[in-house]
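ok so i was messing around last nite and threw this chain in just to see what happens. nothing serious, just curious
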Amino acid sequence: MGILAIGAGAVCCAGGAVAHFIDTSRHREGLFGLAGFCFLLTGLFLSR
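result:
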C-alpha cells in the first residue's frame, strides 16, 4: 500500500511539473504539489 501511495505522489509531482510549463495559472501547479506532498508523506509513513 505504501508503494502505491509513493507512486501516486510521484505522478502528482510529475503532473505539477507539466502544469508548470503548460498552464500559465499557478492554481493547478500548487494543487498538484500539495497532493504529491500528501501522497509521498503517506507512502513514507505506510512503508515504515
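not much to say yet. The mean pLDDT is 83.
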